[in-house]
Amino acid sequence: MGIASNANKKRIIEIISESFKDNQSINYIVKQDQKRLERIKKLVEYSFFQGSEFGQLFISDDENAACILLFSDQKKTTFKSILWDIKLVAQVIGIQKVRAALRRESILKKNYPKTPYVHLWYIGVDPLYQKRGIGSKLLQEVITYCGDKPIYLETSVVSNLGWYKKFGFKIIKTLNLGYTLHLLKKD
To answer: CB within 10 Å: which end of the chain, N or C, has fewer?
Structure first.
């Protein structure tokens, strides 16, 4: 398992897109039309950019699991990030959903600390390779990498709660955003 690079970009986007294509939280943001799967890939491309600029990317040794982290103290607004935000609205969210997306981000921001933390934005396993321990190994590596920094994440997948709890994550809040979103933290 290890830290990924731009050389792994295509595979990371495939893994995350495929493992999140039916996720309620993702589908809340992505415009729901005949281009939905293409839009999900564009969302993950945006996330890859954010992770490479303001966080860290991970991929398993067998290249079947991936993770995107963001570091709260490294995130900043740049010309490049503004262009990516515009692209996200135009290609993924659509004008009609911008308000809902901004509302969700505002709610999440209020529930996270002002002090530095790690945001485990995505962790996914290629659906063909799930239930083999690959995701668990990757999550343990990420936890080790983060050291003593608190790690925060959100999930709308109830069946994932037990898995995260095994790694020491605790639910800190449950939100109703038109779907249920659980906020978790690991100290």
So the answer is: C
What's the CA gap between 21 and 23, in Å, rounded? 6
Residue 68 bridge partners (DSSP): 57, 122
- Crossing angle for the helix pair 36-54 and 79-88, to the nearest 10 degrees: 160
> Rounded to an integer, what distance in angstroms lies between the CA atom of residue 26 and that of residue 37?
11
Kindly list the averaged pLDDT for each block of 10 residues, start to end, along the chain of length 187. 71 96 91 94 96 95 96 94 93 90 91 95 96 96 96 96 97 94 95
* 55 within 8 A of 70, measured Cβ to Cβ: yes
Quote the pLDDT of residue 178: 87
Pull the structure tokens for residue 21: 């294509």
Residue 133's contacts (CB-CB under 8 Å, 6 or more residues apart) are none
Structural domains in the chain? 2-186 (3.40.630.30)
